[in-house]
Amino acid sequence: EPRVFSGIQPTGNLHLGNYLGALSRFVPLQREYNCIYCVVDLHAITVAQDPVELTAAIREVTAAYLAAGIDVKRHIVFNQSQVPAHAELAWVFNCVARMGWLNRMTQFKEKAGKDKENASVGLFAYPTLMAADILVYRATHVPVGEDQKQHLELTRDIAAKFNNDFSARIAALGHGDGFFPMPEPLIQGPATRVMSLRDGTKKMSKSDPSDYSRINLVDDAETIALKIRKAKTDPMDLPSEPKGLEGRPEADNLVGIYAALSGQAKEAVLAEHGGKQFSAFKPLLADLAVEKLSPIADEMRRLKADPGYIDGVLADGAERAAAIAGPVVASVKEILGMLATR
Ligand code: TYM
């Protein structure tokens, strides 16, 4: 039974990278798969969070899921901390994953910076919780941006080690020759790694101190146009083929954004706009971004005015998610030899 799972952290500043690399890709998957989309607040607290802002950000990400077009009648949108199974399975995975595996995670190295001694244990163990998010639903497909690829590989390593360590027990209990599936990352399209508008070698990120580095989902039309006008470019014109973007990270990024927003390949964008100066291309890109993003921003604003409704969606989602995750955790405990909860 194929199943899609993905998550977004409620850490403020949802941006164009989150939208093009993840959120916008979640929507069409609803036609083919049962989908579960999570607001991962337990991940957000691996770095310092203001409690009032965390509450607002949980509702904001939920609003973004709804505004982007996730159908919560047929699929599940919920908040991680409201389903205890995630934290329970994460502990088990802390005992499956090896220190050496986690030591290789590049995101920890980036986020912890120089002062590793002072990083939270949660930040180090972050990927085992992410593996639990996915595997507690036995999800088979995980749509994410390029930056999550290494975490998905670790998830597969954890699934494989668990299946292997307990293979005899898993078979004896009638689960066949593997309890967890090997989840497949879905990293697709022209914008799997959207870069900063100020520096084409840096990822667009929620935590960049410059707001001009990113387009936030909630930016108004003028702000979007201004940020695109100010975006760094090089002095050359647009090439007419993708190989002309090599060694030009800023140009490549803007073309990728245009392609993703218009649902085209970069080839098609360049076939149409090749030869233009950036001063002519940027207004077209700004108009396209406003056309695609402003309906989402408007709907998010409308939804956020009704937190009671959002909390209701999450409560319903948590109940349906727990109905899937609970039995999986119960089976894991049985596989491990623990006694059942009454
Ligand atoms: P997070 O909250 O940082 O980002 C959410 C999604 O947005 C993608 N993304 C990008 N895509 C393209 N260009 C960018 N500049 C860019 N920045 C972010 C991310 O790849 C992600 O898909 N660890 C995850 C959250 C998570 C999760 C999970 C994901 C927790 N559990 C289980 C999938 C499955 C994260 O920090 O995403």
Give structural attributes:
single chain; mainly alpha; Rossmann fold; Tyrosyl-Transfer RNA Synthetase; 3-stranded parallel β-sheet; aminoacyl-trna synthetase; Tryptophan--tRNA ligase
What this model shows, in words?
The protein contains 14 helices and 5 strands. The model has no long low-confidence stretch (mean pLDDT 97). It is mainly alpha-helical and 342 residues long. The chain starts with a strand and ends in a 6-residue tail after the last helix. The strands form 2 sheets. A 3-stranded parallel beta sheet has the order 1-2-3. The protein has a two-stranded parallel ribbon with strand order 4-5. The protein has 2 domains: 3-186 and 306-336, HUPs (Rossmann fold, 3-Layer(aba) Sandwich); 211-302, Tyrosyl-Transfer RNA Synthetase (Orthogonal Bundle), CATH 1.10.240. It binds tryptophanyl-5'AMP. The site of tryptophanyl-5'AMP has 25 residues, from strand 1, helix 1 and helix 7.
How large is the count of helical segments? 14
Question: What oligomeric state is this?
Answer: single chain
* Biggest β-sheet description: 3 strands, parallel
- How many whole angstroms does the radius of gyration measure? 21 Å
- Which CATH C-level class of the largest domain is it? Alpha Beta
Total domain count:
2
What's the architecture of the largest domain in CATH terms?
3-Layer(aba) Sandwich
Present as ligands are: tryptophanyl-5'AMP
**Protein structure class:** mainly alpha
> What fraction of residues sit in β-strands?
5-15%
Order of strands across the widest beta sheet?
1-2-3
Q: Tell me, rounded to a whole number, the average pLDDT.
A: 97
Give the H and E element order.
EHEHHEHHHHEHHEHHHHH
Q: Which range best describes the helical content: under 10%, 10-25%, 25-40%, 40-55%, 55-70% or over 70%?
A: 40-55%
Low-confidence parts lasting 5 or more residues at pLDDT below 50? none
Q: Based on CA inertia axes, which overall geometry fits?
A: globular
Count of β-strands: 5
In the CATH scheme, what's the topology name of the largest domain?
A: Rossmann fold
CATH superfamily of the largest domain: HUPs
- C-alpha termini separation: 28 Å
